[in-house]
Design brief:
The chain is of the alpha/beta class. Helix content is about 40%, strand content about 20%. The strands form four sheets. Strands 14-15-17-18-19-20-21-22 form an eight-stranded mixed β-barrel, surrounded by six helices. A six-stranded antiparallel beta sheet has the order 1-4-5-6-2-3, with helices on both faces. Helix 8 (about 260-280) packs across helix 9 (about 310-320), helix 13 packs parallel to helix 15 (about 495-505) and helix 15 (about 495-505) packs parallel to helix 17 (about 525-540). InterPro entries: Biofilm_reg_signaling, EAL_dom, EAL_sf, GGDEF_dom, Nucleotide_cyclase, PAS, PAS-like_dom_sf, PAS_4.
């Protein structure tokens, strides 16, 4: 029986099959020979090539052209039949009955023809039979008498408009060609090392079950519905899709150490274990598709998934399966893997979007230490995408003037007066609003734009400090403290930048303080040390920011031109009402303050939020405080008002 169809160009090759020669036959009863007294049989089509009428041979019996044509039609190796307007067979040649395994009866032939043509009432077929359409080509799959599948190319040509006759149905067995195409496709769509589906086949399968159309009605290269993916099963469709994207941890070291042959053996063994994991995780007769996407990357695709629990269970099983050591070419190898897990409604995503999120989640799993699975987090992904947007806009934003400075007072604990301010940069982003430094400074340090941004901050802060100084003649001027990134020390001429800012703004060097973290100062030698010494020689003060959270190497305090230690806020937060004086953190802070004073340094405590904290810090000798107890970071006009009230 007929079991598959494709209309138009051959789906397997992407090209239209060659059209058979055009034949038109006069309507007669099937296999019926005209009586001797009947007029000669006149087919309504020209004779096939090589069968044209020839001059009679002397002495031979004369045959009319119609006899020759009828005999050629009957003996033609191509299976052909003449159809009436209803699609019934009115005449068929011997090859037609032989190919389709049916008897000469008109009824059986017509039933076969109807199955070849497709569903009843097909408008395209009716148009050809009635001469309203030029022709029709379809690929059909049938089962022969022995139950073997055979592929047929079915062509229907309309009846000739200027004469009698029916439509011509021609059938060609293309099974051998399809088998060859299937073999070529199998080689092209499978990984030669593991024999798993490769990236191309994986994405083909994934695309067939994602998007608004989903898996309904999708066929592969014109194949029968039973070849659709996923295969039909008893389980009801959930309309969801899941992917476990797996990458081996440290596989490159295996190739580098033992060679690619051993690496290939390991990949094959990994593939075998993943296949067993997928088989064990089958639900409702549907087994996840295991594919090798390239290198040491594998994927398990779960159509009609039941939720994230199914996917995370599958990922956990895969990790457990890989824990046992492998024997690869006599080498005993152990590997772990990282897995990114994504599960969502199939109609709400595309193959590209799903795999982008799976790749991102795999990166998270590796960044978290590897040897684990990580589930896709939309909120985390949104933050990542925002970070990428900000990274692309950082440099242009500097030129557009989107950055501003806020200032937070530095207060003398002894008398409560403001002696300085710390400049804190903000990004007034047109889309995301005002962003704190934590949202963009890390990216700026990665791509180097922090050097350009740092120059702007330095000059703007110096100009503002000079403006406050000029506005308060004869009174004690406050200093401004500016944060300096590590890359500014290494990648720019920081000394020249500072000198240019001071000269352009007229700010005295002693009113400028530069804050560097411990990581920027650790092991200072060569260029960093020379930079700090040159800045100190200019009269600029150097402060170590977040002291106590980094290396806390006290030996460099005596070697570097440092003026101030800024204690990290984590120490100050331990100064709570419920923590009695003399607790461990307070003892540590007191020791650091005492050491700093003996080295001639002043100490600033960050993140002071309560008066009780300020009193205890003052009691152990801390010099300056900074925090919300006195003010949050505010604009320059608020600082000017604070200075006016201070007198």
């Amino acid at each position: 029986m007929v079991s598959g169809t494709t209309e138009g160009p051959s789906a397997a090759t992407g090209q239209a099959p060659a059209a058979p020669q055009e034949h038109r036959l006069h309507e007669t009863r099937p296999q019926e020979r005209p009586p001797h007294d009947a007029p000669p049989y006149e087919p309504s089509v020209p004779a096939p090539a090589g069968c044209e009428a020839r001059p009679p041979v002397p002495g031979a019996r004369a045959h009319s052209p119609s006899d020759v044509r009828a005999d050629a039609f009957r003996r033609a190796p191509m299976a052909m039949a003449v159809l009436d307007r209803a699609g019934r067979v009115v005449e068929a040649n011997d090859a037609f009955a032989a190919l389709l395994g049916t008897g000469p009866g008109a009824g059986s032939l017509s039933r076969v023809a109807a199955e070849l043509l497709g569903r009843p009432g097909d408008e395209a077929v009716r148009a050809v039979l009635e001469g309203r359409r030029a022709g029709l080509r379809r690929t059909r799959r049938v089962r022969d008498a022995e139950g073997r599948a055979r592929w047929l190319l079915v062509a229907v040509d309309p009846p000739r408009a200027d004469g009698p006759g029916g439509a011509l149905l021609s059938v060609t067995d293309i099974s051998a060609r399809r088998e060859l195409e299937a073999r070529v496709r199998d080689l092209r769509m499978h990984d030669p090392v593991t024999r798993l589906p490769n990236r191309a086949l994986f994405f083909e399968r994934l695309a067939s079950v994602t998007g608004p159309t989903g898996p309904e009605g999708a066929t592969e290269h014109g194949e029968h519905p039973e070849d659709r993916w996923p295969p039909e099963a008893g389980q009801a469709r959930t309309g969801r899709i899941g992917v476990c994207y797996l990458d081996l941890d440290g596989f490159k070291a295996v190739n580098d150490t033992f060679g690619h042959r051993t690496g290939d053996l390991l990949l094959t063994a990994v593939a075998e274990r993943l296949i067993r994991v997928a088989a064990a995780g089958a639900r409702g007769g549907r087994t996840p598709l295991v594919a090798r996407l390239g290198g040491d990357e594998f994927a398990l695709l779960v159509p009609d998934s039941s939720g994230t629990e199914q996917l995370t269970s599958l990922a956990s099983a895969a990790l457990v399966a890989l824990e046992e050591p492998f024997d690869a070419g006599g080498e005993r190898l152990s590997v772990s893997a990282s897995v990114g897990v994504v599960e969502r409604p199939a109609a709400a995503t595309s193959a590209t979007e799903l795999m982008q999120d799976a790749d991102t989640t795999l990166y998270w799993a590796k960044a978290d230490g590897g040897g684990r699975w990580t589930l896709f987090d939309p909120e985390r992904n949104a933050h990542r995408m925002t970070r990428q947007v900000l990274a692309a806009e950082l440099r242009p934003a500097i030129g557009r003037g989107e950055f501003v400075l806020d200032y937070q007072p530095l207060v003398e604990l002894a008398d409560g007066t403001t002696s300085g301010v710390e400049a804190l940069v903000r990004w007034r982003h047109p889309q995301f609003g005002t962003l704190p430094p934590s949202r963009f400074i890390g990216q700026a340090e990665e791509d180097g734009s922090v050097v350009q941004l740092g120059r702007w901050v330095l000059r703007t802060a110096c100009a503002q400090a000079r403006a406050w100084q000029v506005a308060r003649p004869g009174r004690r001027a406050i200093f401004v403290s500016v944060n300096v990134a590590v890359r500014q020390v290494w990648d720019s001429d920081l000394v020249a930048d500072v000198a240019a800012a001071l000269e352009a703004t007229g700010l005295p060097p002693e009113l400028l303080q530069l804050e560097l973290t411990e990581s920027a100062l650790m092991g200072s030698a060569g260029r960093p040390l020379r930079v700090l010494q040159a800045l100190s020689a200019m009269g600029v003060r150097i402060a170590i920011d977040d002291f106590g959270t980094g290396y806390s190497n006290l030996s460099y305090l005596s070697r570097l031109p440092v003026s101030v230690l800024k204690l990290d806020g984590s120490f100050v937060r331990s100064f709570r009402d419920d923590v009695p004086p003399g607790a461990a953190d307070e003892v540590v802070v007191e020791a650091m303050v005492s050491l700093a004073h003996r080295l001639g340094l002043t100490v600033t405590a960050e993140c002071v939020e309560t008066a009780q904290q300020a009193r205890r810090l003052l009691g152990i000798g801390c010099d300056t405080g900074q925090g919300w107890l006195w003010s949050r970071p505010v604009g320059p006009e608020r600082i000017a008002g604070l200075l006016r009230r201070q007198g």
